[in-house]
Amino acid sequence: MAEAEGAIASPCIRVCVVHPAARICVGCHRTIDEIAAWGQLDPAARAAIMAELPGRRALLRQRRGGRTGRAGG
């Protein structure tokens, strides 16, 4: 199904692993509830979530002790 013009695409990068402590996906940085509801959310709700993702990425980096790469990198 194509996204409507002006719609916000999913931030999913197909790395679907939930961080055990932070309880967010390490790929897209959304919560399980946000991922499940994404298709039903209006553009404003999606935009609000998208605005929070950079801060969540920083949270995961702090929890990993500052490492930024994948295993072996």
Can you walk through the features of this model?
It is globular and about 35 Å long. Helices cover 37% and strands 0% of the residues. The protein has 73 residues and is mostly helical.
Question: How are the elements arranged and paired?
Answer:
Layout: H1 32-37, H2 43-63
Strand content: under 5%
Instruction: Decide which structural class fits the backbone.
Output: mainly alpha
Could you tell me the number of beta strands?
A: 0
Poorly predicted spans: 67-73
- Helical fraction equals 25-40%
Q: Count of helical segments?
A: 2
Largest sheet: none
Shape: globular
Order of helices and strands: HH
Give me the Rg, rounded: 13 Å
Average predicted confidence as pLDDT? 83
How far apart, in Å, are the first and last alpha carbons? Answer: 35 Å
Keyphrases for this structure?
73 residues; mainly alpha; 2 helices; 37% helix; 0% strand; disordered C terminus
Describe the structure concisely for a colleague.
The protein is mainly alpha-helical and 73 residues long. The chain has helices at residues 32-37, 43-63.
